[in-house]
Amino acid sequence: MELSNKLRWNQFLILATALMSPALTVLCNDILSLKVAGDPVLTPHSVCLRLVGLSKRQMRMCMRSPDVTASALQGIQVAIHECQHQLRDQRWNCSSLESFGKLPHHSTILSRGFRESAFSLALLAAGVAHSVASACSMGKLRGCSCEAKRRQDDDKIRLKLTQLQLQTLQKGGDTWMWGGCSHDLRFGDRFSRDWLDSRGSPRDIYARMRIHNNRVGRQIVTDNMTRKCKCHGTSGSCQFKTCWYVSPEFRVVGSLLKEKFLSAIFVNSQNKNNGVFNPRTENSARRSAGGFSGGRRRSMSRELVYFEKSPDFCERDASIDSPGTQGRICNKTSYSTDSCSSLCCGRGHNILRQTRSERCNCRFHWCCYVLCEECRLTEWVNVCK
């Protein structure tokens, strides 16, 4: 017994050391810098006063609901990781969105009208809605709790089992009822909208583009909610099931938005304050992928839109948040965007034997840290000059 306790204590010390050391396997929330595992005490001081550049509205929301804000910030962090995964083969790969102590919405590229801006905005809005809805379903937020609903469901389940014990067996089938604790996407959607769409007013095309793409990102989460069920009955039977809605895996959200990124619509940039986007008529080469099919205009309500042609992102340029592609690993046998000819922008590449450490198999934990494994790789790589 004493040996077992000692082993458990040693395991705890190893985990605690890992959690407190950013050089090991834990990445703390890069925005809040909270390194405490488990459920930290989320107060206005520990959350709101750590953030730089909040609008007055955002500060009021944070002071009123620091726990919801912390969940939203974790959603932003999840979205940044997903952005880096989805655009890993592109010249601009979302790396500039990740900065310590700052919200990514202060990144210059998110104040531009590029295709990459549209994708990032949509993914960040989806991340906030997804994270807040998930935290709500876990009973982690004071503003929306499922504890009372769970107790009511327990009573309903007991009553339902009594009623269906013979009826279900006679029918030889099963039945189901809504129960459990669905991800409260309405709550998450509203907080995402209030938090992100409140930055400015829709009086110019950028503001309209931002609000539009935010809405598209949240809609992807809503449209892909799935039903999850749990069986009830004696001896492992499934006399009936309680079912509830859950948000899609965020990798699914990211993949669907990546498809919309590739087919995003280039819109008219004339500053007509009517809230209506018009596709660029001169984009005849893009019509099949950018908004027209068979002579009919594709509805833009669920599509990403942008109004500025993207730069090549080949060189470092702080004015557009471009880190450049020097030092990027490329694939010399590829003919896609990860090829050396594309990523290296004609500068050529070197072949190097490289040993590097990468974060891998990351898992996001409430609240608010990221636990990753450290993957060490030694290989010959092609690196852009």
From TrEMBL:
InterPro entries: Wnt (IPR005817), Wnt10 (IPR013302), Wnt_C (IPR043158), Wnt_CS (IPR018161). It is found in: Secreted, Extracellular space, Extracellular matrix. Coiled coil: none annotated. It comes from the Eukaryota. Its main location: secreted. GO terms for molecular function: cytokine activity; frizzled binding. The keyword Zinc-finger does not apply. Residues 277-296 are annotated as: Disordered. Belongs to the Wnt family. Ligand for members of the frizzled family of seven transmembrane receptors. This is Protein Wnt. It comes from Poecilia formosa.
